[in-house]
Write a structure and sequence with these properties.
Structural class of chain A: mainly alpha
Strand content of chain A: under 5%
Strand content of chain B: under 5%
Strand order of the largest sheet of chain A: 1-2
Radius of gyration of chain A: 22 Å
Largest interface: B-C, 65 and 47 residues
Chains: A mainly alpha (538), B mainly alpha (341), C mainly alpha (119)
Order of helices and strands of chain A: HHEEHHHHHHHHHHHHHHHHH
Distance between the termini of chain A: 22 Å
Number of domains of chain B: 2
Oligomer: heterotrimer
Number of helices of chain B: 12
Largest sheet of chain B: 2 strands, antiparallel
Low-confidence stretches of chain B: none
Radius of gyration of chain B: 20 Å
Mean pLDDT of chain A: 89
Largest sheet of chain A: 2 strands, antiparallel
Shape of chain A: globular
């Protein structure tokens, strides 16, 4: 048990060190191949560590693992608390980042200065893994900043393209203001609760009623929780691109390097969704101070409406796009809308069985959507990067040159639309189940409308890249490592569907042990256990 | 059990039965529309022209040659056409008509995915395999129709499914030795319980609205007048079907007809209860089933004969007004009624 | 006979039936097709209503023209609103929409606080 908690603590420092040592190494070593190998080695080690953490979590009966940084006890020091949800999403994020790094080794042919690229990408991974594993609200802010700054740098990577610079500047200015607002939220939380630890906040928000610790409005935990949640939700819906905080996505996606787009879709946005789920279900769950006067229910209702709006706006805009990656950006917005639709079914009028189905659908869809999106981006990247073009009209028929790309695009389109027997169908089936049995068939109709409109957008890619006859003979680039990536992802996506009874049962166990009341109890108990071991006795 | 599954899939209600039914449906439509327009319709092949559609199919499949086009991928089009037909045939296993019935909670969603997602995709891929500007424009019109039709069909069919789920969860059914619960949101339970729901006036209103919306959407799905927009002959040569010839055209026509007849069959079961109030294996049951099927078919024929073709933008808005919105209204009526009564 | 199971197994069973039926029917079609022979062995040009293929600049419709009917006729007003009023690309518009969402959140918070203060 303790060896597992040591490994969790090593992930972020390892990544940060690896990232910061690249500029130093670049003074001595200039070879691209070295940095490719270095980056792959680091991300492979992180992948192994994340899977080791998750394995030991399962062996321990999903009891949350706590790692104290520097040995300081929890409310005073920073802890990483890994429960079933963290563990699974951390493993998933490390897999997505590993695939992005693998793809980068092929893509590095088209990048001049690989050292800055890998510094920023490793920094991005640091931020992602830190945000996912952390158990402390302020550490979340720090990791969020690390993530954001790497993201701004990566968005602007092709500094000679005006679209990239414009997108990155807009993203950076708005993002800087927004993450500052999250900092203010943590200040408010600390002033009222006296603690920054997530489990401690969980305990204090449920056990104590609205009591005044000190003074009138300043120390009152009701007003503090309300304000803090308002700011936090705003910030993390920006990070995860929910309408109306979604405007940065299409601009950034249209000009960033291709592996970065894969990392964004598969890992960064998911981090935002994870944090919202963590705040709404663990920290301020159904029995907490936030549920007073129906505030939590109304917030969840607003998130639901915004999820539907996001799905519809994203899929409608998808139909218009000429740039392949911009289209994928809008498709990400649409799927994130679906995730929010199903995440916000935690209202008090909904039974806990329906909630369990909804949260299972959430996590299953995160995995399906992420892997499908990475598959699509890798396949399109294989076609668009050698051609140097991102416009679908100019890429007409080019994927006939790369049969593996055609296969990848086809499988990814089927997965994202949700055809039997791909995994995307089963997660959408769970969503339908949650909506219909939760007494909201209108949401089921909205879901099918969103799927119908977005399938128009996916067909654009399908039609533009595969069907037109290839007229001029183009030079074909060697696929290299992209071929096994596409093949493995295509098979994985199919297997997620074929083995869906087992997969959905497993995810249900994960949800039960993390977001359902039983899991929340375990989260708090691990924390109190660590406290007791310091205070001595019970 | 595997043997019964194979026979169910291949014979009844498998490929042979549904193909025969679709030939009959096509003949009935052509004959009734022709009589409404003072023409004769198919007369010479077989008694009263009954075998005309079948002979057309055989002619295209086995006699006419496939014209090879420079840019086409014929094998992929044939594969997807056959995939569409298989999707529809395998969805027939969900009906009480089939001797080996599959019923599960939420199997309605499986049906919708097979019929509403799989089949349009196969039609689109079939057409896209033939490179031709007219085909591409026909495909874009087809997609714009499908965008509205599939959600409308889903919402329309959802009405009786919701009613049946409410009835099923409140009324115990005696099956064999103990009380069992019929599956929720399933086509099977809807077919067996919807007959009694028509007697409730609120349910009857919602069911009528839903039925009308669904029939309109089936008309559009089958690309019959007034919604035969993707095949607009004067504008697009033959739209989606421009480059099809020989066996490929046979497969496409069969897919189209099988889709139409299976949609009407499902409507007959899910909305009208199939052979209700008689049992399946009785003469009255079979006769009533055929009568209900022909009623809906006649409705479709009347609408086809009455209207000219809508333009693309007209067609989509009319679909929204007369199919999607009434279907959503019907679903809302049913869910509010279930919630508060 | 009735098989009642959970929806996932039902869908897997039905998809196995569907895929095997597809292979079977494809073989049937391949067998029944007339064999190659005669003049139609060489590939023909596209059928363009009697015109020569040289009138086309490209043999296929560009994907940007694929949804012309939807975007510019059916949902013209919706798309004009979406693109010209919402997704203009100007940062200040982003700020307006995002601030509106923040104000909704804060408004709900103030209302909840007001209710708890009154009680």
């Amino acid at each position: 048990m303790s060896s597992a908690s040591n490994i969790v603590g090593a992930i972020t420092p390892l990544l940060a060190t690896a990232s910061f040592s690249i500029p130093l190494l670049s003074l001595f070593i200039k070879s691209k191949k070295f940095y490719n190998a270095y980056a792959i080695a680091v991300s492979a080690i992180v992948l192994i560590m994340a899977s080791q953490t998750f394995m030991s979590l399962i062996e321990g009966g999903y009891k949350p693992i706590i790692y104290k940084f520097g040995g300081w006890p929890p409310p005073v020091g920073i802890v990483y608390e890994v429960d079933a949800l963290n563990g699974l999403l951390g493993l998933y994020a490390s897999i997505v980042m590993f695939i992005a790094f693998l793809f980068s080794t092929w893509y590095s042919k088209f990048i001049d200065d690989v050292t800055w690229y890998y510094t920023l990408l490793l920094g991005l991974e640091t931020g992602i893994m830190g945000c996912i594993y952390t158990g402390d609200v302020f550490n979340l802010f720090v990791m969020l900043e690390v993530l954001s700054i790497s993201a701004y740098g990566l968005a602007a990577f092709f500094t000679r393209r005006p679209t990239a610079l414009e997108a990155a500047f807009k993203y950076a200015f708005i993002g800087a203001v927004i993450t500052t607002l999250y900092f203010i939220a943590t200040v408010i939380l600390y002033s009222a609760y006296g603690t920054l630890n997530m489990a401690d906040l969980l305990g204090k928000s449920t056990l104590t009623s609205s009591s005044r610790f000190s003074g009138w409005l300043f120390g009152d935990i009701t007003s503090a929780s309300l304000a803090a949640i308002a700011f936090t939700l705003w910030v993390f819906t920006f990070k995860s691109a929910l309408f109306p905080n979604h405007f940065w996505v299409p601009d950034v996606y249209s000009a960033a390097p291709v592996p970065v787009i894969a990392a964004f879709s598969g890992a960064v946005e998911i981090t935002g969704v994870y944090v919202v789920a963590r705040f709404m279900y663990t920290l301020f769950g159904a029995g907490s101070i936030l549920a007073l006067n129906g505030y939590r229910d109304s917030i969840l209702l607003v998130l639901l409406v915004l999820g539907v709006a996001s799905g519809i706006v994203g899929s409608l805009m998808m139909v218009l796009q000429k740039n392949a990656y911009r289209l994928l950006g809008y498709s990400t917005i649409s799927h994130i809308g679906l995730l929010y639709m199903v995440l916000s079914l935690g209202m008090s009028s909904v039974s806990s069985d329906v909630l369990k189905t909804a949260l299972t659908a959430l996590i299953y869809h995160i995995v399906n959507f992420g892997l499908g999106k990475v598959l699509m981006i890798s396949s399109i990247g294989l076609v668009s990067a050698p051609a140097g073009e991102r416009d679908l009209d100019k890429l007409s028929g080019l994927s006939r040159l790369y049969p593996i790309a055609s296969i990848g695009i086809t499988m990814a389109v089927f997965q994202l639309i949700g055809l039997i027997p791909f995994g995307g169908f089963y997660s959408k089936l769970l969503m339908y189940q949650a909506f219909i049995s939760g007494g909201q068939p209108i949401l089921a109709i909205a879901l099918i409308l969103i799927s119908a409109i977005s399938s128009l957008g996916y067909f654009k890619i399908f039609y533009a890249l595969i069907f037109p006859p290839l007229l001029r003979s183009s030079v074909k680039e060697r696929e290299g490592v992209v071929m096994p990536i596409v093949l493995v992802l295509a098979v994985a996506v199919l297997l997620l569907g074929i083995f869906s009874p087992a997969v959905s049962k497993f995810i249900e166990t994960v949800v039960e042990n993390s977001l359902m009341p039983k899991g929340v109890e375990m989260y708090y108990e691990s924390f109190t256990e660590v406290l007791k071991s310091y205070i001595g006795g019970g | 059990m595997i043997l019964e599954l194979i026979i169910s899939t291949l014979v009844f209600p498998g490929v042979l039965f549904i193909s025969a039914l679709s030939f009959f449906t096509e003949w009935y439509l052509r004959k009734s529309v022709a009589h409404m327009q003072s023409r004769m319709g198919p007369t010479y092949v077989g008694p009263i022209g009954l075998l005309q559609p079948f002979m057309d199919f055989v002619k295209l499949l086995a006699v006419k040659e496939e014209i090879k086009q420079k840019y086409s991928i014929t094998w992929l089009a044939e594969l997807f056409g056959v995939l569409g037909i298989s999707a529809i045939v395998s969805s027939l296993l969900l009906l009480p008509l089939s001797p080996i019935r599959i019923a599960a909670d939420y199997d309605f969603l499986i049906y919708i995915y097979l019929l509403g997602v799989m089949v349009p995709i196969t039609m689109v891929v079939m057409s896209l395999c033939m490179s031709n500007p007219f085909t591409s424009i026909g495909v874009s019109r087809l997609l714009s129709i499908i965008l509205i039709v599939e959600p409308a069909f889903f919402a329309g069919m959802l009405t009786p499914i919701l009613i049946a789920a409410y009835i099923v969860s409140n009324v115990p059914v005696f099956c064999g030795e103990a009380y069992c619960r019929l599956p929720l949101y399933s086509i099977f339970s809807s077919s067996t319980t919807i007959g009694s729901a028509w007697s409730n006036p609120i349910y009857a209103i919602a069911l009528t609205i839903g039925l009308a919306a669904t029939v309109v959407s089936v008309q559009a799905k089958a690309m019959l007048n007034p919604f035969n927009i993707p095949e607009a002959e004067q504008e697009l040569i033959a739209g989606v079907k421009t480059e099809f010839s020989g066996p490929l055209l046979a497969i496409f026509n069969l897919l189209h007809n099988v889709e139409l007849s299976s949609s009407i069959l499902f409507i007959t079961y899910v909305f009208l209860g199939g052979p209700y109030p008689f049992r399946h294996l009785s003469i009255q049951g079979v006769l009533i089933l055929i009568a209900k099927y022909i009623t809906i078919l006649t409705l479709v024929a009347i609408v086809r004969a009455l209207f000219g073709r809508f333009r693309v933008e007209q067609g989509v808005w009319i679909l929204i007004k007369y199919s999607l919105i009434p279907a959503i209204v019907a679903v809302a009526i049913v869910s509010l009624f279930n919630l508060y009564v | 006979m009735l098989i009642i199971s959970d929806p996932i197994s039902a869908s897997i069973l039905i998809s196995i039936v569907m895929l095997s039926l597809m292979l079977l029917l494809y073989l049937v079609v391949k067998v029944l097709k007339p064999k190659h022979g005669g003049s139609s062995d060489e590939s023909r040009e596209m059928y363009l209503g009697g015109e020569h293929p040289s009138i086309l600049s490209k043999p296929h419709v560009l994907q940007s023209g694929l949804y012309w009917a939807i975007v510019f006729r059916d949902f013209k007003r919706a798309y004009r609103g979406l693109v010209e009023k919402m997704h203009t690309g100007r940062v200040i518009d982003w700020v307006y929409y995002m601030t509106a969402w923040l104000l909704i959140l804060l408004l709900l918070a103030i209302i909840a606080l007001g209710i708890s203060a009154l009680i």
